[in-house]
Specification:
Chain lengths: ~350, ~350
């Protein structure tokens, strides 16, 4: 498999981007194409042991920075994102991965790759980070204003992805709403309900956020505005709570004395803590976005993964892993085929 | 002050509803009017020591149950909610409090009290539970489909509330969006931005959920659909994380042995833990909805507070406390006056 990795994506490009690609090449033996400012990328690559790994560098002089908009993407035809997308378009690679500006990746994808024929709007699908079992949440930000027909297509694409990449047959699809009854929701959600109910997807009705956290649905469907606010709220709450716990327990003279008094007890607890450590690690991992890698841009003419800008090397590697799974599952081809079958017609 | 309390509101009515009203009467010396099925309410009241307290019971034969909709509210003219709202309308009481069905309270309020003249839509305002300092989030569910003009009125009502009830002068108003730039958001949010910017409120622009958690705004503004999903996501994430921590640490033989091994250490830590306990209590309180009581229904012709259906007595008492603050601050009167001033005109 050949994967093009945007070397100029992350907040600290090209450091984690290059390191993640090197890790992926080593772990899976795939060919990695690093696209970006050649000199910078090569000097970063020189810091790694890459003997025997299939890693190429392709030059792209321009960079789409984190704060830049569609306008910049339009102008910067020689940016790493657009050069990488063109390689995917021409089948020089099998997937594109970036942990850069999401709007930039989306715009580059629309300019260079285009949408799958018949798909009205793209959607960004993300594994919801706080759920008892994997839930695929979409749209988390590609299409902020949706119509019921878009949501139906999102559901159909997500169904194809979850079936092919996760191996879950006929996944449950829940519509995020402010209540479980069919008459709950804003106008768009209320209109989408019957459209989903009368389609070929396994629609389980409206779901509230607590149902998503329970893993009560495999796919959680909503417009890109609400989905983005929901995902960002989840990250904000988790990070606030952990910071709050930490600060509350370590601030003030009283607490500092308390922590000193706790020390001998903690030493006595060491054997117990060591036994507990797999659980503690599992908790930390659950909340670590690096474990998840990235989000899948569904609806484009190729496998495109976007990760968090603050990704470290492991997160970049996991985003590449997600791209591999989508390529192996033949997700884009399956969506294309699905759209030509009458049962999938809108 | 006289406050009418819906005795038939909570999931376990009339138990916590009556107990909360008794606690409030004792703590603040106010007159409480319990409205509901008289026999049931009186027999519950008989379990309490109420000597010297100003508590009355007003009979209302019908009950709006948790799952019922506007249609039921329309029919049940003699429900506790509608009878209570009529007392507020006739100035027999100063505020209405229920921890029942939010849609039921809203519909009862619209039928009996009506909106303040000039207010286009009501909004439900809630203290956001996971923030470094109080943030007033609205709308959390009264008006699912909003226009920019509604949001401006919500902001003006919230400003009045925060100034009069919290004593914060010229509070900051942030618009919840999927990014900080003015061009982020769905269509409604993008249209609302210039309307808010050109108004007399202290508009600080778009805010993301992490900014709300930091307390970077005093008022967080959004439509009732997204606001409800955001609030419910917050509750779901907090409760999931705590359950997850608990389950991870206490499941499996390995962890059970580990916890036994921890015991001697914990005993040694007792003095330290005792010193820490105010912080631990603060953490627990922060996450305890009972501390917050309820949400304020802004835009109705009177002070109306709605609490969580799973409220205990303390949560009911705190909801009554919120009603007292709003009455003392003259919030409804101030909103009325504000609307007649040209600077507040839409």
């Amino acid at each position: 498999m050949r994967i093009v990795v945007d070397a100029m994506g992350s907040d600290h490009y090209p450091v984690p981007d290059v390191a993640g690609a090197v890790q992926a090449a080593r772990e899976w033996g795939d060919e990695m194409v690093l696209v970006g400012q050649e000199e910078l990328v090569r000097s970063e690559l020189a810091k790694h042991e890459v003997g025997g790994l299939a890693i190429r560098v392709v030059h792209a002089p321009e960079v789409i920075e984190m704060h830049e908009h569609t306008h910049a993407v339009k102008q910067k035809k020689e940016s790493s994102m657009r050069v990488g997308m063109r390689m995917l378009k021409c089948d020089e690679v099998d997937a594109f991965v970036s942990v850069g500006n999401t709007a930039g990746v989306l715009a580059s994808g629309l300019f260079e790759l285009g949408r799958i024929r018949g798909i009205r709007r793209p959607a960004l699908g993300t594994i919801y980070p706080v759920a008892a079992q994997p839930v695929f949440l979409l749209d988390t930000g590609a299409t902020t204003d949706c119509k019921p027909e878009y949501l139906l297509q999102f559901a159909q694409m997500a169904k194809t992805y979850v079936e092919h990449a996760w191996g879950i047959d006929n996944p449950r699809v829940g519509l995020i709403s402010n209540g479980e009854e069919a008459d709950k929701g804003n106008l768009m959600v209320r209109d989408a309900y019957p459209v989903l109910e009368n389609s070929n997807i396994n629609f389980i009705g409206n779901v509230e956020p607590k149902e998503v956290a329970k893993g009560g649905t495999d796919i959680a469907l909503i417009d890109g505005f609400t989905g983005n606010v929901m995902l960002k709220t989840t990250e904000a709450v988790a990070s606030f709570l952990f910071r709050f716990l930490k600060n509350e327990l370590s601030s003030g003279v009283r607490n500092k004395i308390a922590l000193l008094l706790l020390l001998p007890g903690l030493v006595g607890m060491l054997p117990g803590l060591l036994l507990l450590s797999p659980s503690i690690r599992r908790i930390a991992r659950r909340l670590d976005y690096a474990e998840y890698g990235g989000a899948l841009l569904l609806g484009l003419n190729g496998v495109v993964i976007v990760g968090h800008g603050r990704s470290n090397a492991r997160a970049v590697k996991n985003a590449i892993g997600q791209a591999r799974t989508a390529v192996e599952g033949g997700v884009v081809e399956a969506i294309r085929v699905g759209l030509t079958q009458p049962a999938h017609a809108v």
